[in-house]
């Protein structure tokens, strides 16, 4: 038996629009982001891909995206599970910083290392920073272990247990499973699904607001490549993500 997994990065956010490193900072969608989420819902309807269950991060931009897309597909009623394990990568001391200024200040090599290396996290964020989540109630269960910065490797380490414990359970039950999350938490999941190497994952960028669909076998391995429901828009969106920071 195969099962269907739909991955969706949230639509354009207020800080995507301002070109700021966001991470765990809880910003909302822009008008453009809402339109992308609506289009995502239309694409699901057009392709007859109607989710039975929704997984999201605990961040508002993913929750808003899911709600708008599901409303469009007339599926707001499905069960929902949220977890911090699907959150964006914690961007450490880069949270709140301008991507173009950071590139200019630190140079392209350091900038790329922080954004796309597999296991080099940015410096940790101070708990008294206005961009810290150290005292955010929604992460109370994490206590002192709440991240202050993360590499992609650390995202994989906290995301994969949730994939194995919860998301694959829905897939095994035959549910069309929608996961609405973030650029880097989805890069982590796609790395796992497609068996992408630690080096090659640097080249993978996930566009905002376009559903990416996988058919999975009984072992939750893809039976073929993931397919974006709007491949042209996805290619353009991924290129724009890759170029963030460049003028
Ligand atoms: O947290 C952010 O700034 C973005 O959502 C992802 O940023 P990146 O593409 O620079 O990793």
From TrEMBL:
Substrate binds at residues 9-16, 22-23, 61, 88-91, 99, 115-116, 183-184. GO terms for biological process: gluconeogenesis; glycolytic process. Keywords: Gluconeogenesis, Glycolysis, Isomerase. Its EC number is 5.4.2.11. The record marks 182 as: Transition state stabilizer. CDD domains: HP_PGM_like. It catalyses: (2R)-2-phosphoglycerate = (2R)-3-phosphoglycerate. It comes from the Bacteria. It is an enzyme of class 5 (isomerase). GO terms for molecular function: phosphoglycerate mutase activity. Pathway: Carbohydrate degradation; glycolysis; pyruvate from D-glyceraldehyde 3-phosphate: step 3/5. The keyword Cell membrane does not apply. The active site is at residues 10, 88. HAMAP family: PGAM_GpmA. Belongs to the phosphoglycerate mutase family. BPG-dependent PGAM subfamily. Catalyzes the interconversion of 2-phosphoglycerate and 3-phosphoglycerate. This is 2,3-bisphosphoglycerate-dependent phosphoglycerate mutase. It comes from Frigoribacterium faeni.
